[in-house]
Amino acid sequence: MALVVPLMLAILFGFLGVLLWVETAHDLSAAVALASTTASTFREDSPAAVAAENDTFYGTMRQYPYVDIRRFRCLHEATRVSCTASAALRFDRTPLSVAWPGNPTLTSAAVSYSSAYRTR
């Protein structure tokens, strides 16, 4: 028991850490994609587009207290909106820090296109 229980706990915490990592990477990708899609519905680089992309991205990611957003940026080029983001997954804010001593950085990018005839 003295050998098996710690080994099983280490495997369990490692597995849960991988699940948390994959979930956070997926949610970061979804937030970036939603922000670029939202921004592409507005006229190029308008204040409303910038407000909408920020509201969408930060509104999606604020539910995660263990994620620190490092950078979020969208570039508007005619009908193309490309957004990128990076965030740190803070294992030290979770009980999983026992098995995961580091805090990995995740990145994501998305591109959306809008109609050249958009009037908003």
Summarize the structure in words.
The protein is of the alpha+beta class. The protein is 42% helix and 25% strand. The chain is built from two helices and three strands. It has helices at residues 4-39, 47-61, and strands at residues 67-77, 80-89, 105-113. The protein has a three-stranded antiparallel beta sheet with strand order 1-2-3, with helices on one face. Helix 1 runs antiparallel to helix 2. The protein is elongated, with a radius of gyration of 19 Å. The chain starts with a helix and ends in a 7-residue tail after the last strand. The model has no long low-confidence stretch (mean pLDDT 89).
Quickly describe the structure.
By secondary structure, the protein is an alpha+beta fold. The protein is 42% helix and 25% strand. It has helices spanning 4-39, 47-61, and strands at residues 67-77, 80-89, 105-113.
